[in-house]
Specification:
Layout lengths: L4 E5 L5 H7 L7 E4 L6 H7 L5 E3 L10 H6 L5 E3 L10 H6 L4 E2 L6 H17 L1 H9 L5 H6 L10 E4 L3 H12 L4 E4 L10 E2 L2 H6 L3 E4 L13 H4 L6 E5 L8 H10 L2 E6 L19 E3 L8 H19 L19
Parallel strand pairs: 1-2, 1-3, 3-4, 4-5, 6-7, 6-9, 7-8, 9-10, 10-11, 11-12
Helix pairs in contact: 5-8
Amino acid sequence: MATPWRVLTLAPLDRDLVKGLFKPLGDAVELLFPESRDEDGLLAVLPGAELIIGDFTGLFSLDKRVLEAAPHLAFVQTPSVGTDSVDVDMLAKAGIPVANTAGANARGVAEWALGAALVLCRHLAWADRGVRAGGWPQRELLARNPREIHTQRVGIVGYGAIGSETARLFEALGSPVSYWSRRRRPEASATYRELDDLLAVSDILVLTLPLTPDTRGLLDARRLALLPDQALLVNVGRGGVVADDVVVEALESGRLGGAALDVYEREPLPPDHPLRSREDVLLSPHGAGGTGQAQFNIVAAVRDNIVAAVTGKPVANVVNGVDPLVRRR
């Protein structure tokens, strides 16, 4: 009888759910779970791990110490699109493929980006707070210059599965859409512009980029200053692409007319952070992709890749350039 593959699940999922997910594999897998959600719990279970399902909360980072503690590690699957909690380059050098769930939550995140832009354009959250407080800020609302979405030029930074779906939704409402990406997309419906040119013509700027060494701090104060006055920022990518303090400064200066943020440099956002007190900011707890359909898609993608790895088939969505055929170490 073949030795079962040892699958370590780091995400805070119910054990019975995980067991049910891989029940069809029977004795082909042995499931491992950290007994405590801290470094000691992680290090105690790593020596036996061959396949790791990462942690979508970001609590457990997969870095050099993990590789040293897991000599048999052969594959890492993130239950998310982002891989910023995984040292993908280090694992690439070790010949260990890393896969994400690209596209699984694209529609959910794109709908959040569009909905957030509508909230900012029409000041919906601000008006809701005023009415709930006992007021009737009708004239004040008109004085804030509500905008119709089709009149807004939309710029999308990052044109992967989320960026392209976001472009399609804005285009359906009549907004002219441009994009910048690290490589041009010949199939794109939106117009390609160099980054600085894109910023100069974006009334609504949507960030969908992952966080990598190349994208960290990509939008600094100089670049945000290129935006038209009172531009709106929607970030569904990663917080580190634009620093939270840079966003605050742009809001205070009036360069930004509002921001909708689902992601932050530090999560959870610190209780005393100035973003929490601004009425021109819509805050969300990194939940843009948190729809039932998106979660189903992510779980299915994780399951399919673990099944592929165990049964000797190539895994999908490898992000670090390693051969997708998982081999025991």
